[in-house]
Amino acid sequence: MTDFDATLKFYKALGFDEVHSWELPSFNLKKGMMLYNEKINCHIELFDKDAEIPTQGRKRNSDDEFIENSILHICFTVENAEKAREEALKSGAKDLSEGVFEISLANGKKSIEVRNSLVYSPNGEVVEFLEKMKF
Question: What is the pTM of this model?
Answer without folding.
Answer: 0.71
